[in-house]
């Protein structure tokens, strides 16, 4: 079975956010599961984890042992992401790789990080993916990585992107919403995020090559 990326969204007990985040940012690889990125969410839930694993069973065991065992974690939603790929603009915003130094997968200074959840009309998944993969970076926004969620009740695709301003993010989302086949979007602002593995390892695990327009 092809290895997958998983999004885990955690709801934390009030007043425990900092303590639990500090605990979870120390998560390490175990039993074939590698935590890649952690971030704080503004709306609804409180913490987002990006995980790499060969199968759902391994992720389930890992989350039960390392996340659901934390008493202040009240709710946990896990979404598998298929065909998860780095977009061609990903490399424009990375930090320089340093020997023996763990670096976040993207340069996040003075940038907002967003997760866009996209609801797609039936039969339009490939066309929408192709349109997303062809979006070029601008001075304001940098599309980073995308994949099919295949399929949840509320969204069918996810796109992570950076923006220098909330206004720039809104303009980017408006451009997403006019793509033929996009039914609706929900956008989460990730207030703080950091890589949990070195950049080189992150790129190897997430995608063997950047997504290109014309892939499908």
Biggest beta sheet summary = 8 strands, antiparallel, barrel
Estimate the helix proportion, in percent: 10-25%
Strand content: 35-45%
Which series of helices and strands comes N to C? EHEEHEEHEEHEH
Question: Which class best fits the helix and strand makeup?
Answer: alpha+beta
N-to-C CA distance: 21 Å
Radius of gyration: 17 Å
Question: What's the oligomerization state?
Answer: single chain
Please state the overall shape, judged from the principal axes of the Cα atoms.
globular
Q: How many strands appear in the DSSP assignment?
A: 8
Mean pLDDT: 85
- The helix tally amounts to 5
Biggest sheet, spatial arrangement of strands: 1-3-2-8-5-7-6-4
Are there runs of 5+ residues with pLDDT below 50, and where?
96-101, 103-107
Give the key terms.
216 residues, alpha+beta, globular
Explain the overall architecture.
- It is globular, with a radius of gyration of 17 Å.
- The longest helix has 12 residues.
- Helix content is 22%, strand content 35%.
- Strands 1-3-2-8-5-7-6-4 form an 8-stranded antiparallel beta barrel, surrounded by 5 helices.
- It contains 5 helices and 8 strands, in the order βαββαββαββαβα.
- With 216 residues, the chain is α+β, with helices and mostly antiparallel strands.
